Amino acid sequence: MEYTEKAESRNNRETDDRAIALFDSGMGGLTCVKALRRQLPGESIIYYGDCLRAPYGDRSVETLKFFSRQIADFLTSFPVKMLVVACNTISSLCLGNLKERYPDLPVEGMIDMTVKTVADTYPDRNIGIIATSAAIKSGMYVKKLRESGCRGELFPLACPSFVPAVEAGICDGPEAEAIVRDALDEYMEKNQVSALILGCTHFPFLRPVIEKLYPSVLIIDPADIVARGIKTMMEDHALAAGSGENPQQRFYTSKLTDAYAQAVREVAAEDSGEITVKVFDE
Ligand code: DGL
């Protein structure tokens, strides 16, 4: 409803070529950019990955609020039509603050659309949720899965070793397998997990390893669900880009690592321009 009014206030324009802004602690949110580009190839994207200050998963709530405000203020200084918090940790702990700060902008996180889809599709499954320590400690996934109607057992687990591995470019091979086994072997053995939510946007980089090690578990990537949800929202509320424009992809980071550059190349393909380094004061 609230987006309808905004669409109307834009003089009944039927398309909107402003960019969709996304951010994360680092390269994790690029998994959302990839999913979004699959669903909405005509949309312009502006992305910020805070690689210098990653991981966020062990930070205090106050620090996360401060970082997310800095980044969101920067992104919303561009003409954007939506802010996507492509980080489950920030979505767990700071989404309300960001929604309050930008009352005229749709602000979407990773969790609400995910829990609704999971509850509608798999209400009775036993579901594992792996995420950062801060996101698990917040209890947000478990609370919202229950509120949405999930009736199976829920098994939340913090996997603090995954984000540093991904940021270092360790996403496959024996080292990545050892990191994943160390975190998940005992957990999978002990719990009857039939579906596993990758509750951190960095974790899909390790998805092939997780699928190889635990082939009977259904993997749920919130990025796909959120991208589909955003597509529906764009179409329903006249926010979608027109077909005549060339979509632009702009990528920012606080620290340009090889892994980030490589991930941007894979996500943006031929459209990727330069990656700009932007560091905030602390
Ligand atoms: N990718 C983020 C998430 O989805 C944050 C990971 C981190 O920096 O710890 O939670």
Topology:
Elements: H1 2-9, E1 19-24, H2 30-39, E2 45-49, H3 61-75, E3 80-85, H4 88-93, H5 95-101, E4 107-108, H6 111-121, E5 127-131, H7 133-138, H8 140-148, E6 154-158, H9 162-167, H10 173-190, E7 195-198, H11 207-213, E8 218-220, H12 222-236, E9 249-253, H13 258-268, E10 275-277
Parallel strand pairs: 1-2, 1-3, 2-9, 3-4, 5-6, 5-7, 7-8, 9-10
Helix pairs in contact: 2-12, 2-13, 6-8, 6-12
This protein binds D-glutamic acid.
Question: How would you describe what is shown here?
Answer:
There is one protein chain. The radius of gyration is 18 Å and the shape is globular. The chain is of the alpha/beta class. α2 crosses α12. The N and C termini lie far apart (38 Å). The N terminus is likely disordered. The strands form two sheets. A six-stranded parallel β-sheet has the order 4-3-1-2-9-10, with helices on both faces. It contains 13 helices and ten strands. 46% of the residues lie in helices and 16% in strands. The structure holds D-glutamic acid.
